[in-house]
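Progress narrative, Year 2. Work on Oxidoreductase from Geoalkalibacter ferrihydriticus DSM 17813 advanced from sequence curation to structure prediction during this period.
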Amino acid sequence: MHQYLRAAFWILVYLALVLTPLFVLLIGPRPLAGGFWVDLSLALGFAGTAMMAVMFLLTARFQRATAPFGIDLIYYFHRLASIGAFIFILLHPLLLVVRDPALLGAMHPAVMPWHLWAGTVSFAALAALMITSLWRKQLRIHYDEWRVAHMLLAVAALVLAVAHIAGVAHYSALSWKSGLWLLIALSCGATIVYVRLVKPLQMLRRPWRVVEVIEERGSSWTLVVRPERHAGFRFLPGQFAWLTLWSSPFAMKEHPFSISSSAEAVREVQFTIKELGDFTSRIGRVKPGTRVYLDGPYGTFSIDLSRAPGYVFIAGGVGIAPVMSMLRTLVDRGDRRPLQLFYAYHTWERLTFREELAQLKEQLDLEIVYVLSEPPPDWQGETGYLSEEIFARHLPADRAARECFICGPTPMIRVAERGLARQGVPPTHIHSELFDLV
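Result:
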């Protein structure tokens, strides 16, 4: 209940931040009535700009604000809210032009006033931001380059939007109303300073060192890191952290990875990383002694936040990493609650943590159901891809009482969520960890 109350509080804070500028503008003298469509257009523009400003706070990783939801859900909401803000801002000029097509004449570059230039360039920056974010992979934009461009485009879009509002001075002619939008812009600037200067400086003072690099099956590697001249941090089993490797924490080159070690091992943290992209393809070349920086822990994907008489884990590929953190923690705690793991992979030979999982079966009350899409000739287990039929054959009788944790590729997560629900698992007992944050 405490978690739900915290979530409700932060939802109300978000709504207040988005709606307050809109209602404050109605205080005091109002301009001559422009009609319903003009007022609707202005309201959409104000709301869209306020939503743009709040985006800076959503991605600032304030742990108290993100804790009730999980930062993966926050980033997913950020994406959806950004689309909503873009639609609002797009409708702002369209409604005016549909009402009065003669306004198009004022958009000619030779006669366009500066505040319309500001609004036009702001919209162009926002459109570029949306295109490069939603289709980054299709456009083959490197992740690190995209992050820098994303921040610059966001700042430009917001600053120019505020300039546009001040220049038009419709509902914001009073100095204190213009000051409100200036305060909003300065607050976003302060957030950037905190995220890109203050927090990296804090990380710089709390470095970590790689003490071991372990080769795993399936082109995966486990980095074992320990704090250098500080106590490290406590984390919940299943959480993740942003890892900065080969760079300064000021370089905006951190990457999120799940922690795979036990939460009881407080003096070291392990990350199991699969060779998949530009950054991770070099992970096996990391040398012991390399200095790294961590920002974390984050996430609500943890058994410690979901008490239950037993658990069901569903992992695909390297999605086994946070599950291993939870299983290892349960071993260290001597926990004997019943556990079940569905682990989907391509081949038996490349199955990550295959040997350790066999040992964990001896240390825990653990049943493992392997699902192989490319099984060996003598394979007797489940084949193909994870499906509702596989769940129907193996889920325990008390499935409705168990908490279920899913981590893996997005298509697998969707299949697992649907299959568990159809097998009688309540939606509140299904927890998913999203890989693709951007």
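The chain has a mean pLDDT of 89. The chain has three domains: 2-203, 208-297, 303-433.
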